[in-house]
Amino acid sequence: MNKGLLKYISSSLLFLLISIAAGAQNLNQDELGKEEKEPLTFYGFKGGLNIGRFSDFIFKPERFSLEGSVDLNFGNKYFAVAEGGYSKTNLEKDTYQYLSNGYFIKLGIDYNMLKKYPTDFLGVGVRLAGSSFTQDANNVIIADEHWGNVPVNIAAQQVNTFWLEGSFGLKAEIFDNIYLGWSALLKIKLSGGNPDFQPYDIPGYGNGINTINLGANYYIYYQIPYNRKQ
Amino acid sequence: MKNTKFILFSLLFLLVLFACTDDQCHLDTETLLKVEMSVNDPSTPGKYIDSLAVYAPEWTDSLFYKNEGEGKSLWLMLSPQQDTTTFIFTSNLVEQNDTLNFIYQRKQTLLSAECGFVTHYTIDTILHTKNYIDSLFLEKNSITTDEQGLVKIYF
């Protein structure tokens, strides 16, 4: 892992910790009774589509993927979030062809640190995520001047992986009930994969060779107008 | 919320830039077996190693110590296409050859998207003739891009 990436990860972690600490401080003030604590009213849910995935057409043309989300709003402060998607990869290189195809799901919570504009969101989140997919490789050539270039195939295999995901992001109501938002992601692989054939792309996680991946989501959401707090 | 919306769109651009990656392979892709040699037997010509050539029956050429060797060592790549490799050690200073048979396990490993696949080896056994080879020791049987295998041969 290069020094630039380490620096980015450590600064991201520091930023996340500061954000969480700031949120925790506000919670403590509430608990001390300086502000009367509101019950966690259910304010409906948002459905979202990850429009960032469409950037694959430019940045990762070998991958086609879709991702959506549903979040349940409790008091504009806590959100129960479910995200899921599908990803298919067909990477063709001079020395191999890699194929993968599978699904992922992420479950977790978001915490909104905003108090002044409660229908918008600025906060942190955590997810437990899993993916199940198949992968194989064809026409694999190990180039060598003496042994020649004889292609081999690697049989299809089923892979299950799990990872933990931390996020920091924003969601702003651009029009009535329409939100646009992004989040920066830090993903830490917990288990799964195959040490001899690490996936080029784990659906929802990214490069399977890395134990830690960074990422970003760009979502558009529609808020179901139910019991909204303005 | 104007500030939030400003941050939203400005960071959108920065994060898209962050998604860009380099498409070059910057990793070492070689998986080699180091063969350290020394001549102890006085009946073996002193210049035996300097005149040594190594080849596999499947090759169309040979590997010459004088061109590829260094410090009484040669670096060989086992066959990535089968689980055994035969190397023949020959020299124009002697009449007979020595044959080494490597028996091993292979694993194709995806090093990275940019570098593609490499073969990692675990050597189980080495069988050899004893025309000029006095003894042979398998010091490190694992060959990956991170570590070379090591065989010591005494003539």
What does this structure look like?
The complex is a heterodimer of chains A (230) and B (155). With 230 residues, chain A is mostly beta strands. Chain A has one domain (41-223): Beta Barrel (Porin), CATH 2.40.160. Chain A is built from 2 helices and 8 strands. Chain A has helices at residues 3-31, 56-59, and strands at 42-50, 63-74, 78-92, 97-112, 121-140, 152-175, 178-192, 212-223. In chain A, a hairpin with an 8-residue loop joins strand 4 and strand 5 (121-140). Chain A is elongated and about 75 Å long. The model of chain A is unreliable at 1-33 (pLDDT under 50). Chain B is elongated and about 85 Å long. Chain B has one domain (24-154). Chain B has helices at residues 2-18, 65-68; strands at residues 33-38, 52-55, 63-64, 73-76, 84-91, 98-112, 116-128, 135-140, 142-143, 149-154. Chain B is built from 2 helices and 10 strands, in the order H-E-E-E-H-E-E-E-E-E-E-E. The chains are: A mainly beta (230), B mainly beta (155).
